[in-house]
């Protein structure tokens, strides 16, 4: 999982606004009237470092297949967060992405086992992994993950893996 991620969203928006503003008066000079305008651009290149740029690993240990019920084997997702110039009141948001979802439930992380998914929880409540979670710096959400099976479908014994990208952005 990647850690430092520059916030470039405002940079792109700013350039689009600025280019539109430059093009506006040039084309209007052909007419008899000129139009005044004001352009405000906010550019942010602040970054957040997640888990010191190291992969976040969750180990479920040995699980008994028949006991995987969507609540057993819940594990914490331990991570650290360090954001440039952030204070305890700085609004942030996070989400998990780059995972297409389990083939039997799009709100679960897809795993290498087709009939097994992982439900991510924020402060004990399930959420869709592509949804944003709003929070403030210094009050990061407690994240956990729990294995979920496709119900009547069986799963093979052995190891499984899953991956997703944890993204944090300034609001």
From TrEMBL:
GO cellular component assignments: pilus
Signal peptide interval: 1-30
GO biological process, one term: cell adhesion involved in single-species biofilm formation
Database matches in InterPro entries: Adhesion_dom_fimbrial, Adhesion_dom_fimbrial_sf, Adhesion_dom_sf, Bact_Fimbrial_Adh_Pro
Gene3D superfamilies reported for this sequence: Fimbrial-type adhesion domain (2.60.40.1090)
Domain Fimbrial-type adhesion: 44-170
Presence of keyword Signal: yes
Keywords: Signal
UniProt keyword annotation of Mitochondrion present: no
Name of one Pfam family that matches: Fimbrial
Name by which UniProt lists this protein: MrfF family protein
Species this chain originates from: Moellerella wisconsensis ATCC 35017
């Amino acid at each position: 999982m990647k850690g430092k991620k520059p916030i470039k969203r405002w940079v792109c928006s700013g350039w689009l606004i600025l280019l539109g503003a430059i093009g506006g008066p040039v084309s209007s000079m052909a007419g008899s009237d000129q139009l005044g305008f004001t352009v405000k651009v906010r550019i942010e290149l602040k970054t957040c470092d997640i888990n010191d740029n190291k992969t976040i690993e969750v180990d479920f240990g040995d699980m008994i297949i028949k006991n995987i019920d969507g609540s057993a084997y819940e594990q914490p997702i331990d991570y650290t967060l360090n954001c440039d110039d952030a204070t305890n009141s700085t609004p942030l948001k996070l989400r998990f992405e780059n995972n297409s979802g389990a083939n039997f439930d799009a709100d679960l992380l897809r795993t290498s086992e087709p009939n097994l998914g992982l439900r991510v929880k924020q402060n004990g409540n399930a959420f869709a992994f592509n949804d944003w979670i709003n929070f403030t710096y210094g009050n990061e959400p407690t994240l956990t993950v729990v294995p979920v099976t496709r119900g009547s479908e069986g799963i093979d014994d052995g190891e499984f893996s899953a991956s997703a990208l944890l993204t944090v952005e300034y609001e």
